[in-house]
Write a structure and sequence with these properties.
It is a single chain. The chain has 441 residues and is of the alpha+beta class. The chain has two domains: 243 residues, BirA Bifunctional Protein, domain 2 (2-Layer Sandwich); 95 residues, Rossmann fold. It has 13 helices and 24 strands. Strand 15 and strand 16 form a beta hairpin. Helix 2 packs across helix 9. The longest helix has 21 residues. The radius of gyration is 25 Å and the shape is globular. The model has no long low-confidence stretch (mean pLDDT 93). Bound molecules: adenosine-5'-triphosphate.
């Protein structure tokens, strides 16, 4: 098994990610997040929100509708150009992306292939109850447009001034022709984005572009992805969307293959000018200081939550030799991302005094963080289970705990054990997880 398969197998076995609608044979390109995956994905989104909104004063949040007036997609150009070229096998009728460099023969049956045709990636849906009178619309193909159509609403309802940004997290849908690579290319997925509005000045906007490239790269590194596994890839001039002034992808080295995780795009004034044209609304910004009126330029950072989840998992996965003949699988997730921050164990499940103390600790810690409970089997096995879940700390209540009011805290990465007073435990863990310390530092 390669690392991707190992991670996919661990993801299923431990409840990170399941195939969508599995009992009905699945549905290509859809995935469900299990109890651990839900926590991991939520933690990634919370960290994104914290860095974009909570810790900044120039970015506000938005949660726009998935279904929008179809004119939005005409204006954005998605109905016209959001398509992939496809070839079809004349014998078995399987379809393949023409840009994937397959030969002239069908990779499945060896049959002859048609010339490439364009297929639109937008997912259609119909609103209304009366057959024949239903309105055709689309599930959004990207979350970006929800922000731009609200540009004027945000200006008039908040106190933002250019330069400012709007961040959003939400689902997007694409009729991907070849979903695959586990969750890498799904038909339903989540994006986390920033649309940052700046003056339409080439020099100033490129400065902002460089700033956001660095910010986003640093964000992944700050949450534990190995720097060596990340790189920028510049879009060549002929790969750029016709309106784009510059574009870079942040790529992750998925064990030998560099894959796109996030795009940083300089979109010029494309979105606002198109919505101005198609809606007839004035989308200009009035600068109170200079008395100038202009359509702003847009710097976008657009990341995939599912791809980030997958790459955080792959990067954290390690098989480590513990001693001769014994290896452990461990997810070295950053404590901020780990589904459970700590697991609490009574040394023996049949000793009510130990269980009582452990339960009290468990109930107390739960008020502040996600805590796992386990009383099955031997301690070594329980450690292994938590290693696979990425839990950074395990707390064991033993017989010494009863007299000394302390517990053993075992560290996932070093496997070292510390003795910590029960009343200090909360702060001890919080400091290690990476919040504020007790002294407020
Ligand atoms: P690709 O070239 O891989 O199809 P893209 O360039 O079309 O991606 P964008 O439209 O720039 O992607 O979307 C921004 C981000 O959304 C991507 O970097 C990726 O993380 C995520 N994303 C896009 N399509 C998918 C998908 N089908 N499944 C999961 N995530 C996706």
């Amino acid at each position: 098994m390669d690392i991707g398969e190992k991670v996919a197998s661990l993801a299923k076995r431990r409840g990170f990610i399941y195939p969508g609608s599995e009992i009905y044979g699945g549905l290509a390109g859809t995935w469900d997040y299990g109890p651990l995956g839900t926590e991991l994905k939520r933690n990634i989104k919370n960290e994104f929100w914290k860095s974009m909104i909570q810790e900044r004063s120039d970015v506000v949040g938005l949660d726009a509708a998935i279904i929008m007036n179809p004119k939005v997609w005409e204006a954005s150009g998605h109905l016209e150009s959001f398509s992939d070229p496809l070839v079809e096998c004349k014998r078995c009728h399987h379809r393949f992306r023409a840009d994937h460099g397959e030969g002239k023969k069908c990779p499945d049956c060896g049959g002859e292939l048609t010339a490439p045709k364009k297929f639109n990636l937008m997912v259609e849906t119909y609103l209304g109850v009366i057959e024949g009178e239903k309105q055709k619309t689309y599930l959004r193909g990207e979350i970006t447009q929800g922000v731009h159509v609200n540009f004027k609403n945000i200006l008039s309802s908040t106190r933002v001034k250019i330069p400012f940004g709007v961040a959003q997290i939400g689902k997007a849908f694409r009729n991907e022709i070849t979903p695959g690579g586990f969750t890498f290319r799904s038909r339903e997925f989540e994006q986390m984005e920033l649309q940052y509005y700046v003056k339409p000045d080439d020099k100033e906007s490129m400065k902002q572009f460089e700033y956001w490239k660095k910010e986003r790269m640093d964000w992944y590194v700050s949450l534990g992805i190995n720097k060596k596994n990340l790189r920028f890839k510049e879009h060549a001039k002929d790969e750029l969307a016709h309106y784009a002034k510059a574009a870079f992808d942040i790529e992750y080295n998925a064990k030998g293959e560099w894959k796109e995780m996030e795009g940083i795009h300089h979109r010029g004034d494309w979105d606002v000018s198109r919505h101005q044209k198609f809606s007839g609304e004035d989308m200009t910004y009035f600068d109170e200081e200079t008395k100038e009126k202009f359509l702003p330029y847009i710097i976008e950072t657009s990341g995939g939550v599912d791809r980030a989840t997958l790459f955080f998992l792959m990067d954290a996965y390690e098989e480590e030799k513990v001693k001769e003949g014994e290896t452990r699988a461990v997810l070295r997730l950053h404590p901020k991302l780990a589904p459970y921050k700590v697991a609490v164990f009574p040394l023996l499940a049949n000793k009510p005094k130990l269980v009582d103390v452990a339960k009290r600790i468990y109930d107390d810690l739960k008020k502040d963080m996600m805590v796992a409970w386990d009383e099955r089997g031997n301690i070594g096995k329980r450690y292994r289970t938590q290693d696979e879940a990425g839990t950074p700390f395990c707390v064991t209540v033993d017989f010494d705990s009863l007299g000394n009011d302390d517990v053993t805290v075992r560290d996932r990465d070093t496997m070292k054990q510390d003795r910590v007073k029960i009343k200090e435990l909360d702060w001890y863990l919080k400091e290690k997880i990476g919040g504020k310390s007790k002294e407020g530092k």
